[in-house]
Amino acid sequence: MTGKALQAIRDAEYVLGNDSYLTPLSPLIEGKTVIRSSMGKEVERAREAVTLARDHVVAMVSGGDPGVYGMASIVLEVAERSGSAARIEVIPGVTAATAAASRLGSPLSGDFAVVSLSDLLTPMEVIEKRLEHAFAMGIPVVLYNPRSRGRPYNFARAMEIAASHRDPSTPLGLVKNAYRDGEEIIITTLGQVATIEDQVDMHSAVIVGGTESRIWMEGSHARGIITPRGYHRKYLY
Predict the structure, then answer these.
(1) Contacts of 173 (CB under 8 A, 6+ apart)
(2) Contacts of residue 48, Cβ cutoff 8 Å, sequence gap at least 6
(3) Helix (H), strand (E) at residue 188
């Protein structure tokens, strides 16, 4: 979380969010009116926040960055359609792509793409088309919502598409629970992804390296993933 996000929560009279996001904030939200809801209730949550914002200071809590697969869009849409005059500020956070990348070294040094494998709001055929284009560009690709019990095959399909565009030696990083309890970091290759597939879940971000990405090895230990930004083409170092 950013310092500004912490201050916004401190200043709020009402705090709304998914229970899994609110629980870690317990010390910050004591004494406030807290409205908890579950996954799948995003529209109702947004409506309540916009209504309350007419007369109160409201904080809508979202995971990562609220503008990246978060609550910002639905709150703004609800406010737009209702004609709300309430002041709305979107406060940035640290999205899973950059959080996971920092744990893996520097796999996202230049251009990269982010694709969610969740087909709850986007049809799988659209996701597959986006994956084809993303991997064809040769840039690193970050996969959000990679694998759940209800749709375990989306990740396998994404890896098939990746393999049709990338060499088996392409670096692949898995970060679970980045900067949270139970954090796990795995560095492997696209060709070996089947050996870690069972460890991929909804708390994971998977980064598939680009055509220039490499694993920094120290003996038999992988220290991280590096995607050169291009300095080697211009400078001697």
Answers:
(1) 100, 103, 104, 107, 185, 186, 187, 188, 206, 207, 209, 225
(2) 16, 35
(3) strand 184-189
> Could you give all domains of the chain from N- to C-terminal order, each with its CATH number?
3-82 (3.40.1010.10), 96-232 (3.30.950.10)
Structure tokens at 183: 């954090």
pLDDT > 90 fraction of the chain, expressed in percent and rounded:
89
Task: Give the Å distances, CA to CA, from 37 to 23, 72, 89, 118.
Answer: 12, 16, 21, 20
How does DSSP classify residue 91?
P
- Residue whose pair of structure tokens reads 């696209």 in the numeric block: 190
Map 116-142 to HEC letters.
Answer: ECCCCCCCHHHHHHHHHHHHHCCCCEE
- pTM of full prediction above 0.85: yes
Say if CB 47 and CB 65 are below 8 A apart: no
**How far apart, in whole angstroms, are the C-alpha atoms of residue 120 and residue 216?**
37
